[in-house]
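Listing S7. Sequence submitted for prediction.
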Amino acid sequence: MSPIIRLLKKQSSFTLLESLVVVAIFSVVMVSTAVLLMSLLTSWQKQNKTLELVENARWVMDFLVNEVRQAKESSIVVGSGGDTLNFQLPRGSTIHYVKSSSTLQRESVDIANNLSTSQAPFSWVSPILQITITVTKGNQTYSLVSYVRPRN
């Protein structure tokens, strides 16, 4: 037998069955990785939307708290049911907040959407004003509560 024939017989290669098994295993690993990545992406998107919602609620709360802190204590009036808030700032302007439906409005400008209508956002027990903002996204509810003492 010639050396070339012996060399060809000694070379080993993969059979068709072995190649198919490797391709199948590789496919399962790739599909599993893709499903995991899609799941992570979906979860990240949901958390990002929730974070944005809570950040907006905090912004509204900070805005309200800053204005109420500037108010003259004697000018703070909370309407019956706690759905309205009126007060006067030291520079003389009167601020009016109204909760209608699921929107909190400042004078005639909307500053927040998706507020829960289940409870009144304002409660006044002199000298403390309680502000409650509740936002709902899907089946999750977030409530922010601040107690504010006017400085003037």
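Caption to Listing S7: primary sequence and predicted structure tokens for the chain studied. Residues 60 and 147 are 14 Å apart (CA to CA). The chain has a mean pLDDT of 82.
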